[in-house]
Amino acid sequence: MERVVGTVVRGLRCPIINKGDCIEDIVVDSVLKAATVEGFAIKDKDIVTVTESVVARAQGNYATIDHIAADVHAKFGNDATIGVIFPILSRNRFSIVLRGLAKRVKKIVLMLSYPSDEVGNQLVDIDLLDEKGINPWTDVLTEAQFREAFGYNKHRFTGVDYITYYKSLIEDQGTACEVVFSNHPKTILEYTKDVLTCDIHSRFRTKRILKANGGQKVYSLDEILSSPIDGCGFNESYGLLGSNKSTEESVKLFPRDCQPIVDRIQRTLFEKTGKQVEVMIYGDGAFKDPVGKIWELADPVVSPAYTAGLNGTPNEVKLKYLADNNFASLRGEELKQAISAFITNKEADLVGAMESQGTTPRQLTDLIGSLSDLTSGSGDKGTPIVYIQGYFDNYTK
């Protein structure tokens, strides 16, 4: 029978996961149960993806405001005035972190990038900058200057004025706060030489610039809680990067030691089914919302761990290019057979080939992680496990 369905993606429901649960067993049992109930066969090169959130929950990878404050104090010392620069604008991602940063320092100089943060959350519409004659690449603004130019603006999705909100979180800890607006790391050194840079994907460059221009105590968020404080959660690779709000006093950190988890899930599924299923843990997808202009990737990576079969990038040809160029004179079954033969005999590396233009030369884990994140969502779907079939198939299979 002719195959008429390509890639199939299923969000799988599973029990609510808590600290101490065996995430590997839960994933395997959920996959096997779904296959039985829904009537699909597990096949070689299927993919199981698991959201990082439930992995971290099972690990109990949590920390409190006090743990964050203790680590900041250990790094910056007593009565410190620190620059906190380039944080993302997010209650979920940064509010609890900011309270911890502020709890045991004397003053925070909060430097915000504008017109938006690193992932696209806007402080002000970029068109207003043009209207006011302000250049975000050259102009440094005080809070008063920013307010005079742009007034009070609320985030279109959350309804929060993040300038007021972040300043209040700091001052509620009894800590002085000064807010400035600049896109240049060096600006903060005019206020203090001790800096915590909170950007995610540009953090290495930011730290290099700060250290090269007189920064003294310079850290990034991946260095806060990179080891445990009084037995709390931690992440040796990413620290507080990838963390998000758990309670009003604590955060859940990005999961750690993930490679043994995906390897064990793969091994157990093979033992139970005889099929080689690929496995990965995923966080935020790497895509941008065209309406809100927000780039989704607030985690340090899309996937902290995956099995070997998910290494690399796709090696695909563009069907419409073949149909419009190589086989423009063909139609119907003859065209289908010609394209199928071309795909079967395509080169192992199509980089630079005209037939591959317009395909997606991204890492497989970034593509699959984005697909999984869009499938599971971040709300109440209750499907933290995603099962993908046919992802590696092409027009000939």
Automatic annotation (TrEMBL):
This is F420-0--gamma-glutamyl ligase. It comes from Paenibacillus ginsengarvi. GO terms for molecular function: ligase activity. SUPFAM superfamilies: CofE-like (SSF144010). Keywords: Ligase. Residues 11-390 form the Coenzyme F420:L-glutamate ligase-like domain. Gene3D superfamilies: CofE-like. InterPro entries: F420-0_gamma-glut_ligase-dom. The lineage of its organism: Bacteria, Bacillati, Bacillota, Bacilli, Bacillales. It holds the Pfam family F420_ligase. It comes from the Bacteria.
